[in-house]
């Protein structure tokens, strides 16, 4: 039964419709998730890094049901933009879906990354949010979460880089 549920989630995600963009992040068409990823088309995503008052960053460990980087540590929240959606709207939606946070406005935009192999061909806006939790982790998206002191995170990234999603490694490197 668990395999059937996982198969249904993967099939549902494969049908998601994304905007396909050009080298300037301008919409040039739409395609389903599976085609976008298989053909390595440029598309859009958001990442949110959540820090507490002590300066620790909250990371999520991706569900094993995820099609990209299953079981790896990633940004506090991340996700694709749906077709026709803007970055800020996607950030608010994803924070609600993944962490149960209900925001009325997007967090602060912090860093912009161009689409490349390391981001999975995604143009990415990285947002910064200060929040103490608690969070309601969506079990289909996230298997675990933990707070990291930045120095400890940097050591973990050096010692065990494959424990972390590739896009997150790229983002953290850009911020360092």
Description of the molecule:
The protein is an alpha+beta fold. Strand 7 and strand 8 form a beta hairpin. 30% of the residues lie in helices and 31% in strands. The longest helix has 13 residues, at 2-14. The chain starts with a helix and ends with a helix. It has one domain: Nucleoside Triphosphate Pyrophosphohydrolase, CATH 3.90.79. The protein is globular and about 45 Å long. The chain has helices at 2-14, 33-38, 87-99, 150-159, 166-175; strands spanning 17-21, 27-32, 43-51, 57-62, 73-74, 77-80, 108-113, 122-130, 142-148. It has five helices and nine strands.
Instruction: Quote the distance from N terminus to C terminus.
Output: 44 Å
CATH level-4 homologous superfamily? Nucleoside Triphosphate Pyrophosphohydrolase
CATH class: Alpha Beta
Main beta-sheet annotation: 7 strands, mixed
Total individual domains = 1
Strand content: 25-35%
Shape: globular
Radius of gyration: 16 Å
CATH topology: Nucleoside Triphosphate Pyrophosphohydrolase
The average pLDDT value, as a whole number, equals 92
Q: What's the SSE pattern?
A: HEEHEEEEHEEEHH
DSSP summary: helix tally? 5
